[in-house]
Write a structure and sequence with these properties.
The complex is a heterodimer of chains A (429) and B (542). With 429 residues, chain A is of the alpha/beta class. Chain A contains 17 helices and 9 strands. The radius of gyration of chain A is 22 Å and the shape is globular. Among the domains of chain B are: 3-93, Roll (Ubiquitin-like (UB roll)); 281-459 and 476-502, Rossmann fold (3-Layer(aba) Sandwich). Classes of the chains: A alpha/beta (429), B alpha+beta (542). Chain B: Residues 2-80 form the 2Fe-2S ferredoxin-type domain.
Chain lengths: 429, 542
């Protein structure tokens, strides 16, 4: 078992009372990594992160060190680090835990990242609903500033960095990195056309890196424990510790820090305590709402980026939603589609029009009004959206609908032939 | 600029670096459909109808937002591209009312055209459509959100050309809509361009809507007569009704780019003013009676001659106009200055505050041809008087005859009290104009000229660009083109040895006489105009 020798690092101090304070954080070695980082050249840090194999924890799994490496070295423009704390993917609540229980870990990672890319200002973009976490973060920033970790000549070095928190107004799309940048600039949170990518033209037209909370929280540990330590955890190309947010029909939902590549079944059965009443797993959305659902018989697979892609789904944020046999999969698909239709920014045609259409079709089928050709239409709409939009929200809406409709086609057809939901709507409402 | 070699659907072409795929394909003779892309607006890439395939790349790219690169092979005729286009068309039509028969855009609607071109003929969307009430958003526009495809051209026009955020995208998802903030009205004077560039019938012109179908109109290229900028316009003319129904912007990158202001757009209703002067008239003892042209011209020439014989050419004042064409200004000079030796020749400027938007300026000089008038010699000759001094001299009695080639309010020509006295005192007051004015009301003779839309000619804009105006309407009543009136007068006065049958030939004479116009002709002026000779650009001919 992978987890036998694994020691949690991201959640280690969270067990202590007042873990969100600077005092507790420092007592357990907090900000030592920052001091170590400042002794190194920024390029060394980037190189370490590259070698560690750290991939973005926000869903796309892009190698973090590579992203940092895209920031141009010779530019007169200021550079910015943006922390994506707009965790809005249904099923994901891992970044929230960090902001709540260990905001200094995030700040330390943010500062090291800023130093590595040559930024003198970092913005933490936190979703509006995280009001409590925003207050804690704000306090943490103050503490760190008072202690000299934020501000001028940090720890006696020649490098200065300010950290500013910005509270979003509650839009999933602001978690898309260019949507986040637009929102941070005070505009509508509409994703930008890419290229140019933020590393070249980002916030206020300047080179910018946008990193997920958990991604940055990994950075101090890489600096402190070495890239070799990080890359030794988990499968090749999918290294490191991971916060799995487990929810749905499990006995012990919550955030679990485990190595990348842990078996999904083990996560559910061992760590999540299995399904209540010992009911069978009917389906699992493995990495947040945008990831295609897996059937209950498909969950003997490692939880990592590459394995889930191979399985036709996605690792996403690594936050599985478990559904037992009382769940109506059409309703689950409809709830997912409704979310994306509601969160579509409305900018580009396929996503704006397609998401609402999918939602209508799914509701029609769920309520027993569906026809077989509606299922064909539904699948063709997913094809018509996928790949044709400005940002990944279109894909994120198309994939789960297609996943549900393909993986549970029989159940969809049953709704159509019986002209009702065979599960009476199921356990989701 | 450096050029790159690319292939479009297998056809090799060289295009400028930085060109996007839509423009590059156009160069190769391939039309890439587009709704949101407009060469004069920022690229937003939202409609997705311009998706193109690039050889070797798995994902389609937006043609508007992708720039050519050396060796690129752009594919627009693949099944993949066709599928994507069909998908976008289907999506755009799901909530669209498909009310083409009653939509004012019908016949010139991009969405309609593309639907005819690439379908789908039937909708698979069997749900209730989202509907919105019609809305007055100001700017002389009506907003019908049901037809809107959210291309954002309207928003970007206001933002990028006018520099004002008067209209915005609001809400999100399928509830996204275009609107003004808090129901405020669009006030910028460029908003009319929205009706031109809206690719659907969402924002239509209050002035034009439901007046005619676009295919009923004959479109004639002309130049706006409302300021010295010389914006290129298309005059939409209804031949059966002999009526102009709208003016739209005509692209000229050297003058107005793609835009015109709303003053020019709406500034044609005066053509159909029921109070138009329609016949030559002689006023005496408080009554006015029509006189046949021939008689009128002879009588006026006789009266002028008498005054010159008795008091000399210094007793004549000629008030020209910067609204007349180069040809007419040239004739003004030829007849009065060169022919009769009148040195009191001038025209009144009509300044108003300039309105400078972010990328478009409505010029302050309200004459379309002030530059041309000055160049052609509508200016005081040796010891000649300007307009104001002429009025004073006439009020004092030294000027006995005043010829106004356009009337106007009294204060246009000087202190109204002095002008009033001048007009009362002169022995001969001749006014050539197309509408009555305080000046024509006091005239002994009124000759009905015509508007910019009823004659051929050229204007010289403030930048020294010579551009053609066209005869659009059939001449009304017993009116006569101003160039014809001036030639007739010149003939009757015996000072014009030859006359020309059309302004094109007058222009050739002008080009020989006035150095600034040297070498120009109607064919070199063409559709988009030509600059006057640079070396002589600022030298007025006296």
């Amino acid at each position: 078992m992978l987890t036998a020798t694994f020691e949690p690092v991201l959640t280690k101090t969270m067990q202590y009372p007042e873990s969100h304070t600077l005092e507790v954080y420092r007592k357990h070695g907090g900000y030592e990594a920052l001091a170590m980082a400042l002794q190194k050249q920024p390029d060394e840090i980037i190189d370490m992160v590259k070698r560690s194999g750290l991939r973005g924890r926000g869903g796309a799994g892009f190698p973090t060190g590579t992203k940092w490496g895209f920031v141009p070295k010779s530019t007169d423009k200021p550079k910015y680090m943006c922390v994506n704390a707009d965790e809005s993917e249904p099923g994901a609540f891992k970044d929230r835990l960090i902001c709540q229980k260990d905001p200094h870990q995030l700040l330390e990672g943010t500062l090291i990242g800023s130093y590595a890319i040559g930024a003198n200002r970092a913005y933490i973009y936190i979703r509006g609903e995280f009001a409590h976490e925003a207050r804690l973060l704000e306090r943490a920033i103050e503490e760190a500033r008072t202690a000299g970790f934020i501000g001028r000549n940090i720890l006696g070095s020649s490098w200065s960095c300010e950290v500013t928190m910005y509270v979003g107004a509650g839009a999933y799309i602001c978690g898309e990195e260019t949507g986040l940048i637009e929102s941070l600039e005070g505009k509508r949170g509409w994703p930008r056309l890419k290229p140019p990518f933020p590393a070249v033209v980002g916030l206020f037209g300047c080179p910018t890196v946008v990193n997920n909370v958990e991604t940055l929280a990994c950075v101090p540990h890489i600096v402190k424990l070495g890239w070799e330590w990080f890359s030794s955890i988990g499968p090749e190309r999918n290294s490191g510790p991971k916060l799995y947010g487990l929810s749905g029909h499990v006995n012990r939902p919550g955030v679990f820090e485990l190595p990348m590549g842990i078996s999904l079944r083990e996560l559910i059965d061992e760590h999540g305590g299995g399904v209540p009443g010992g009911r069978p797993v009917k389906g699992v959305i493995p990495g947040g709402a945008s990831c295609p659902v897996l059937r209950g018989d498909e969950i003997d697979l490692p939880m990592d980026f590459d394995s889930l892609t191979r399985a036709g789904s996605l690792f996403g944020t690594g936050t599985p939603i478990v559904m037992d046999d009382t769940t109506c999969m059409v309703r689950a698909a409809w709830i997912t589609a409704r979310f994306f239709a509601h969160e579509s920014c409305g900018q580009c045609t396929p996503c704006r029009e397609g998401c609402g259409w999918m939602q209508r079709l799914l509701w029609k089928i769920e309520t027993g009004e569906g026809e077989e050709r509606d299922l064909d239409t539904l699948l063709s709409i997913t094809d018509q959206i996928e790949g044709n939009t400005i940002c990944a929200l279109g894909d994120a809406a198309a994939w789960p609908t297609r996943g549900f409709a393909k993986k549970f086609r029989e159940e969809f057809l049953q709704h159509i032939t019986e002209r009702r939901c065979p599960l009476g709507g199921g356990s989701l409402h | 600029m450096a050029s790159v070699k690319i292939k479009v659907d297998g056809r090799e072409i060289a295009v400028e670096k930085g060109t996007n795929l839509i423009e590059a394909a156009k160069n190769a003779g391939v039309a890439v459909p587009h709704f949101c892309y407009h060469p004069g607006l920022p690229v937003v890439g939202v409609c997705r109808i311009c998706l193109c395939e690039l050889e070797g790349r798995p994902k389609l790219v937006a043609g508007c937002a992708t720039q050519v690169e050396e060796g690129m092979h752009v594919i627009t005729r693949s099944a993949k591209v066709a599928d994507a286009r069909r998908a976008v068309m289907e999506f755009l039509l799901i909530h669209h009312p498909l009310d083409c028969p009653m939509c004012d855009k019908g016949g010139e609607c991009t969405l309609q055209d593309y639907t005819m071109l690439m379908g789908p003929a039937r909708s698979r969307f069997k749900f209730e459509k989202i509907t919105w009430p019609e809305e007055d958003v100001g700017g002389k526009l009506v907003l019908n959100k049901n037809r809107c495809i959210l291309c954002m051209r309207c928003v970007n026009l206001c933002k990028e050309v006018a520099g004002l955020d008067e209209i915005a995208v609001l809400s999100r998802g399928e509830q996204t809509y275009i609107g003004t903030v808090d129901g405020r009205k669009i006030e910028n004077e460029l908003a009319g361009n929205i009706a031109d560039i809206c690719p659907v019938g969402a924002l239509t012109s209050k002035d034009f809507r439901f007046r005619a179908r676009p295919w009923e109109l004959t479109n004639v290229s002309s130049v706006c007569p409302h300021c010295s900028k010389g914006c290129n316009i298309t005059v939409g003319y209804h031949p059966r009704r002999n009526e102009i129904l709208r003016i739209t912007a005509r692209t000229n990158m050297d003058v107005n780019q793609w835009w015109i202001c709303d003053r020019g757009r709406g500034g044609f209703h005066f053509l159909h003013d029921p109070k138009r002067l329609l016949a030559p008239a002689r006023a005496a003892n408080g009554t006015s009676r029509p006189v046949p042209w021939k008689q009128a011209i002879l009588d006026i020439a006789q009266a002028l001659r008498d005054i010159i014989v008795r008091h000399g050419a210094r007793a004549v004042g000629v008030v020209g106009s910067g609204t007349l064409t180069n040809e007419e200004c040239y004739l003004t000079r030829a007849v009065f200055k060169d022919g009769l030796g009148v040195s009191n020749v001038d025209f009144p400027p009509r300044p108003q505050p300039e309105v400078a938007y972010k990328k478009f300026t409505i010029e302050g000089d309200k004459d379309p041809n002030a530059r041309g008038a000055a160049l052609c010699g509508v200016a005081p000759g040796a010891s000649g008087l300007g307009v104001r001094d002429m009025m004073r001299a006439a009020a004092e009695g030294t000027i006995k005859a005043l010829v106004f080639l356009r009337g106007g309010p009294l204060d246009l020509f000087g202190d109204p009290a002095i002008v009033e006295r001048a007009l009362q005192k002169v022995d001969l007051l001749l006014v050539v104009d197309f509408v009555p004015s305080p000046v024509s009301d006091r005239a002994h003779w009124v000759l009905p000229g015509v508007t910019f839309a009823e004659k051929e000619g050229t204007f010289t804009n403030s930048n020294g660009r010579v551009q053609r105006i066209r005869k659009v309407l059939t001449i009304r009543g017993d009116t006569r083109e101003d160039w014809r009136i001036l030639q007739d007068l010149g003939q009757a006065l015996g000072v014009l040895p030859v006359t020309d049958p059309d302004p094109e030939r007058i222009f050739l004479r002008l080009a020989q006489a006035v150095p600034a116009f040297s070498g120009l002709s109607y064919s070199t002026v063409g559709e988009l105009g030509a600059p006057i000779a640079a070396a002589t650009a600022d030298v007025a001919v006296g």
